[in-house]
TrEMBL record:
The lineage of its organism: Bacteria, Pseudomonadati, Pseudomonadota, Gammaproteobacteria, Oceanospirillales. Its EC number is 2.7.4.6. It catalyses: a ribonucleoside 5'-diphosphate + ATP = a ribonucleoside 5'-triphosphate + ADP; a 2'-deoxyribonucleoside 5'-diphosphate + ATP = a 2'-deoxyribonucleoside 5'-triphosphate + ADP. Belongs to the NDK family. This is Nucleoside diphosphate kinase. The keyword Iron does not apply. It is found in: Cytoplasm. Homotetramer. The gene is ndk. The active site is at H117 (pros-phosphohistidine intermediate). It comes from the Bacteria. It comes from Alcanivorax jadensis T9.
């Protein structure tokens, strides 16, 4: 297994619930290291561009409206198998299907407001990290 990076977003519902620290703590306990982090209130353009792959989906408008409803925490996580590990910690897209103890099971109720985003592949991770961060904003922790 290689050290890789993934993009994580703590979505507006979880920020509003005041559970930023709890979620970051789960990443740290799983040996993922934060190598970049910022709080942003996304514009329609930023959220729509980030989710461009879903542009034709019926829920796209609702998704953009939710993602711009309040500030989010955008992070780059680094560690062994970071992409899959983050997806495991988050649980299924629909919190109703998410395993007990996962972020989405613990902090979300519905598929449209589901607490967290995580890149779904190494390719998506590279694109998503570059969408939010310049190279010099990343602070490698393993050297
Ligand atoms: P993810 O990779 O697990 O976040 O899931 P997807 O990439 O398939 O979808 C992106 C995001 O769109 C999800 O996290 C949800 O916030 C939202 N979403 C997905 N499916 C639905 C849906 O059927 N209805 C609504 N309202 N939102 C959805
Ligand atoms: Mg996805």
């Amino acid at each position: 297994m290689a050290v890789e990076r993934t993009l994580s977003i703590i979505k507006p519902d979880a920020v509003a619930k005041n559970v930023i620290g709890d979620i970051v703590s789960r990443f740290e306990k799983a040996d993922l290291k934060v190598v970049a982090m910022k709080m942003v209130h996304l514009s329609d353009e930023q959220a729509g561009g980030f989710y461009a792959e879903h542009k034709e989906r019926p829920f796209f408008k609702d998704l953009v409206s939710f993602m711009t409803s309040g500030p989010v925490i955008v992070q780059v996580l680094e560690g062994e198998d970071a992409v899959a590990k983050n997806r495991d910690l988050m649980g299924a897209t629909n919190p109703k299907d998410a395993e007990a103890g996962t972020i989405r099971a613990d902090f979300a109720q519905t598929i449209d407001e589901n607490a967290a985003h995580g890149s779904d592949s190494a390719e998506s991770a590279a694109r998503e990290v570059a969408y939010f961060f310049a190279d010099e904003e990343l602070c490698p922790r393993t050297r």
